[in-house]
Design brief:
about 300 residues; 6-stranded parallel beta sheet; 10 helices; globular; binds nicotinamide-adenine-dinucleotide
């Protein structure tokens, strides 16, 4: 391996420490405790793990954590009533509805019922529009985490060629907007892109957000490029024992690390940054709600 390893786990620890500092100051100087509410509908095991982890980390940085666990058969009306109650609760500064929702619930409708200033996932249509027009918004956590790591590694991103693979609303598109905001020349590649290898070879920065295990090989990477691997894919790992699995990203780590200038691992790269950025967004939302200065370096 020749690439510098971008250690997302350590970086997330720094972000959480910054958040905790700011939370302590808000309490001490203003008597305010930032509050994050997470709404979980149904029993999806992966969602339950995420929600538990979010609640634990929220408390660890000194914020108030509220969890609403609703039955899988909850009606849209009842879910909207919970969101409305949280919208009106002055002790709650961030609201997150864990996705995916059961099929009978309209995700867009529910997300757009969250007060935009409390939408710490940054998925509300108002925040999407604000980000797209370069205005102050709540920024989706995963791309925000990628941006923080890129800024930290490169300093300025201005003029760099960036290729984002994947055009989802939660990762690919907002990632591209953020890179554009930092004056990269941005290409969004996707499942219909012709000659993806050639497109990726032009990039100084590659962000892979596809959901296909190890699909980007080292010979697609320009020597010295920075590779950010958003993918989280579980593969069978019989060598670890029966029924065991291992996590891999969307890039083939070993061949890419031999060519890249810097690379994030999976696990331990983008993943830990996502919850850290959720905490950062909550403290930012709290400061904005109270007309106070936002913590530096924790927003886009
Ligand atoms: P998605 O399924 O919504 O979007 C995938 C995108 O990849 C699509 O836009 C599609 O056009 C593109 N794509 C599919 N096949 C392709 C191909 N062969 N070549 C080029 N592009 C192709 O996925 P998502 O929600 O954006 O997530 C992407 C990955 O990132 C997943 O592995 C997911 O688990 C992971 N993820 C990680 C985090 C984190 O915290 N680290 C957060 C969100 C998503």
């Amino acid at each position: 391996m020749t690439a510098t390893l971008i250690d997302g786990k350590a970086f997330a620890g720094h972000v959480r420490a910054q958040v905790a500092d700011h939370v302590a100051r808000l309490k001490e100087e203003h008597g305010i405790t930032p509050g994050l509410a997470v709404v979980l509908v149904g029993e999806d095991p992966a969602s339950q793990v995420y929600v538990r982890s979010k609640g634990k980390q929220t408390v660890e940085v000194g914020m108030k954590s509220v969890e609403h666990k609703l039955d899988a058969t909850t009606s849209e009306q009842d879910l909207l009533a919970v969101v409305e109650q949280l919208n009106n609760d002055p002790e709650i500064h961030g609201i997150l509805v864990q996705l995916p929702l059961p099929a009978h619930l309209d995700e867009d409708l529910v997300i757009n019922s969250i007060a935009p200033e409390k939408d710490v996932d940054g998925f509300h249509i108002s925040n999407v529009g604000l980000l797209g027009t370069g205005q102050k918004s709540m920024v989706p956590c995963t791309p925000l985490g990628c941006l923080m790591m890129l800024r930290d590694y490169h300093g300025s991103l201005s003029g760099l060629d960036a290729v984002v693979i994947g055009r989802s609303n939660i990762v690919g598109k907002p990632m591209a907007q953020l890179l554009l905001g930092d004056s990269c020349t941005v290409t969004i590649a996707h499942s219909r892109t012709k000659d993806l290898a050639e497109v990726v070879r032009r990039a100084d920065i590659v962000v892979a957000a596809v959901g296909r295990p190890e699909m980007v090989p080292g010979d697609w990477i320009k020597p010295g490029a920075t590779v950010i691997d958003v993918g989280i894919n579980r593969l069978d790992a019989p060598e670890k024992g029966e029924g065991k699995t291992r996590l891999v990203g969307d890039v083939d780590f070993h061949s890419c690390a031999a060519v890249a200038g810097a690379i994030t691992p999976v696990p331990g790269g983008v993943g830990p940054m996502t919850i850290a950025c959720l905490l950062a967004n909550t403290v930012t939302a709290c400061c904005r709600a109270n007309g106070l200065a936002e913590p530096e370096g924790l927003t886009a």
